[in-house]
Amino acid sequence: xxxxxxxxxxxxxxxxxxxxxxxxxxxxxxxxxxxxxxxxxxxxxxxxxxxxxxxxxxxxxxxxxxxxxxxxxxxxxxxxxxxxxxxxxxxxxxxxxxxxxxxxxxxxxxxxxxxxxxxxxxxxxxxxxxxxxxxxxxxxxxxxxxxxxxxxxxxxxxxxxxxxxxxxxxxxxxxxxxxxxxxxxxxxxxxxxxxxxxxxxxxxxxxxxxxxxxxxxxxxxxxxxxxxxxxxxxxxxxxxxxxxxxxxxxxxxxxxxxxxxxxxxxxxxxxxxxxxxxxxxxxxxxxxxxxxxxxxxxxxxxxxxxxxxxxxxxxxxxxxxxxxxxxxxxxxxxxxxxxxxxxxxxxxxxxxxxxxxxxxxxxxxxxxxxxxxxxxxxxxxxxxxxxxxxxxxxxxxxxxxxxxxxxxxxxxxxxxxxxxxxxxxxxxxxxxxxxxxxxxxxxxxxxxxxxxxxxxxxxxxxxxxxxxxxxxxxxxxxxxxxxxxxxxx
Length: 489
Fold this sequence. Notes:
Elements: H1 11-32, H2 40-59, H3 64-77, H4 79-97, H5 100-111, H6 117-132, H7 135-153, H8 157-174, H9 179-188, H10 192-223, H11 229-239, H12 248-258, H13 263-281, H14 283-290, H15 297-309, H16 319-325, H17 334-352, H18 355-364, H19 370-388, H20 391-408, H21 413-424, H22 435-444, H23 448-451, H24 456-471, H25 479-484
Helix pairs in contact: 1-2, 1-18, 2-17, 3-17, 4-7, 4-13, 4-15, 5-7, 5-11, 6-7, 6-8, 6-10, 7-8, 7-22, 8-10, 9-20, 9-21, 10-21, 10-24, 12-13, 14-15, 17-22, 18-19, 19-20, 19-21, 19-24, 20-21, 21-24
């Protein structure tokens, strides 16, 4: 439970753990660079959590049992996400070794033009994510292949990752199959399809601008690149059995998604299918993994377990291609899980101590207009992603915090649900220590800070939401509420 002492912490005191986190993370990045997420950031999160606990217990006499219960709850709420992360590691390894990703890369680099690669990538991921309702699944499957194609075409991986994430979060945001879309609608008390239709007002312009930017970038960047595609195609042909039969695995995955099979089941069955594909089509690759010559049942089983669970490296004769086809398996996701556990601990103590409520309540007292209310909701979603490191918690808290205010001022609930999603869902992937940010950085092999400048959809979405509120476009307020509502003191 949250702070039960009925004492709301002073906002200045409440800001201390957050300020400490920013300072410690800045020090960690300066000392360790990209390796900060391998331990230093976790220490920063736990140290900031300890500061929060110390202040809340010493100054506001919050009971340790309350803090402990909240930590258990927040970490428990991420258990499914952690299992999904392990299965994403499993699927990334199996899709690579089975030849699924190499086949997609082999044909993709011959079909796609560098000039139109970024806009094509964004559109492909948009369609896949719209159909699946999951940005994570989209990025972990087709996203990995597109990163490979982009590298082969000479497109910087940070740009490709930005296009993948932009498209994936567009589909995730407006798909009726998306859990975040459903959560935002239900948390605000809005009908799902009313919520989706209202989000189109901000989402379509944002996506249009995003595609235009990627189109211009492609024309400029693609024109200046000359890449020898044959180096990649020859290396892939020598290292893998390139076969269209491998594409039965993504077809099966799409079928399971269309049938609305749960994500855990879908990812596991897809990994298993890829493993069977590897045994049939890539036995030589499996033997190279374990350094054996005879592909008998025991050796194949051993190689598959290694593929699913740990790192694999295939020699292709091309250094860039070697790095591209290497995988981390489930073990490659452990740093991400470690970071998530520490981030959830910090989020839990900030909620339990009442310090998070204190900071957000301060915002409410400063709101006096439609623009201010929407901007506060969007900003709160972003801040909650920083503090709690989880988009689901951010959506629920931001919607619940402002629900009465929107109602009292006569705004329709769809404005709250849209503002919550514009602020929380799309920005989660921009926070290096959040579940989304760390996961996508690990899966794509590109650090969060590297791909962040190219996630145009995710950056523009919250700004577009505020712009629509500023000009009052399609925002309805009851006349009776306008005359009776007053800014919170």
